[in-house]
Amino acid sequence: xxxxxxxxxxxxxxxxxxxxxxxxxxxxxxxxxxxxxxxxxxxxxxxxxxxxxxxxxxxxxxxxxxxxxxxxxxxxxxxxxxxxxxxxxxxxxxxxxxxxxxxxxxxxxxxxxxxxxxxxxxxxxxxxxxxxxxxxxxxxxxxxxxxxxxxxxxxxxxxxxxxxxxxxxxxxxxxxxxxxxxxxxxxxxxxxxxxxxxxxxxxxxxxxxxxxxxxxxxxxxxxxxxxxxxxxxxxxxxxxxxxxxxxxxxxxxxxxxxxxxxxxxxxxxxxxxxxxxxxxxxxxxxxxxxxxxxxxxxxxxxxxxxxxxxxxxxxxxxxxxxxxxxxxxxxxxxxxxxxxxxxxxxxxxxxxxxxxxxxxxxxxxxxxxxxxxxxxxxxxxxxxxxxxxxxxxxxxxxxxxxxxxxxxxxxxxxxxxxxxxxxxxxxxxxxxxxxxxxxxxxxxxxxxxxxxxxxxxxxxxxxxxxxxxxxxxxxxxxxxxxxxxxxxxxxxxxxxxxxxxxxxxxxxxxxxxxxxxxxxxxxxxxxxxxxxxxxxxxxxxxxxxxxxxxxxxxxxxxxxxxxxxxxxxxxxxxxxxxxxxxxxxxxxxxxxxxxxxxxxxxxxxxxxxxxxxxxxxxxxxx
Length: 622
Ligand code: ASP
Hints:
Blueprint: E1 2-6, E2 9-15, E3 49-62, E4 65-72, E5 75-82, H1 87-94, E6 101-110, E7 123-134, H2 151-156, H3 158-161, H4 165-187, E8 191-192, E9 210-212, E10 220-222, H5 228-236, E11 241-249, E12 261-270, H6 274-293, E13 301-304, H7 305-312, E14 325-329, H8 343-347, E15 350-356, H9 364-375, E16 385-389, E17 395-397, H10 405-414, E18 422-428, H11 430-447, E19 455-456, E20 458-462, E21 467-470, E22 475-478, E23 505-510, E24 513-520, H12 525-534, H13 539-553, E25 560-566, H14 567-575, H15 605-610
Parallel strand pairs: 5-7, 8-11, 13-20
Antiparallel strand pairs: 1-2, 2-19, 3-4, 3-6, 4-5, 6-7, 9-10, 11-12, 12-25, 14-15, 15-18, 16-17, 16-18, 20-23, 21-22, 23-24, 24-25
The protein binds aspartic acid.
């Protein structure tokens, strides 16, 4: 366990010894087809007659012997066909193809050369009967962890891709996490309650998927972007504590690692304030780590939104490593670059920097790569300045023409640097430059391998702004969603200074990924109306879209709040996967398509008619 302390912040990173979930309790799978599964038999079963069913993963012929790796979800058992014992059985085994489904009966015996990599590696089964349950075409790629299939092929044959042990383990992990969530929340009094999929629009900031109504010409359902309004109605209904592991649908533009349908752990509680919610769900995440990974990550760090941006240049900082931003020049504060005629610094309202521990050893080439990195259009900086504190005590910088040793030392000291460290500076407008520093921080960490997948740093971000200005639409939009309550102490200036009102909202961030977020909700009709007005809804529009919720607030709505976790993201994090696609059984590709079933697809002319809609594109059927 490693503790970092920096100022008033405490960071915790924990090494994770286990890359895989702890094992499942033994399952009995005995049926007419099998006495045990392919991962079950051990040396203690030597001499037993057994029947196994599974897939022919590999066949090796060695003289009079044929070795068959028989595979199922539970593991692999080696089956032996011995020509000298049963020649016709041996010939039948020779006919088997990859991924044939077979039933084998035989006797367990010790292996001559045990395989320590395999749970069943001490034994093998000498076959005395073989039944082919089904044949298989030659699979289009190797069904092993190291496969030769390209992404497109793997997705098109996802049912074969899912036969690979690594993918089966991921789904097993997902299942175990879902079970652990259900157990923890049930024990805390939460009820799992289903909410409808055919609803009308929920404002989570994305586009809705809509479903035309056959029975109500010209009218549409929307699929839920989240069960937000329903879970609040469940609180009005007095259900007190709700959760649901639930599919949500958002029709967003294509972005890497976005799925149009994804799963949330959606939760809501009555009679709570923020601390109650944070306590409950920090408990859930710590429980998951303990149950699934076998360790407790300890109490979570906390940062306000403002601190996160100032120190890390992002509202989802990766705290597996410290490296905070130091400010050398701010619009209202000091300026450690003043008075030297250095134009870049003089013109920029803000200068911030990162101290790279041990970075003085970075080569010229590595520095150039970082300069190239910040100049990429996605980052958009004009250049990168640096200052090095060599281990012999001397200093140098990319601005030596303008600044002397004493000035360089003042920067290094301000950043808490030591000999051997390197400072990297960016200059510009504060908000943008902080964001660029946030990206640079991650890039440096990537280069120096400061983000190991088996370490976890969890934190809460609080005090988000309630509203953001949308310059495209020229109006305020809710940063979280319009049901989020303002912080009580900021309520007074909701109308005069809406931009500076903070929300009673929180996000949970693990290893730089936002894995969940929620808020204390508005439960007062008048305040809810006021917020809708601020967001540019007329009273009529607000009534038409969300009248059901505001009306419900008139009938004794309790104070309430909640959170939703991105379940796919959480599982991917626990599985050490980059993409959530890897932990979803049947994901869509990056273009939002399911290439296995070929969806979306056109529909029959008859269906257009029944649904009272007409295609706008000529490539749709009619
Ligand atoms: N409905 C929110 C979301 O999907 C979560 C919440 O506020 O509970 O992000």
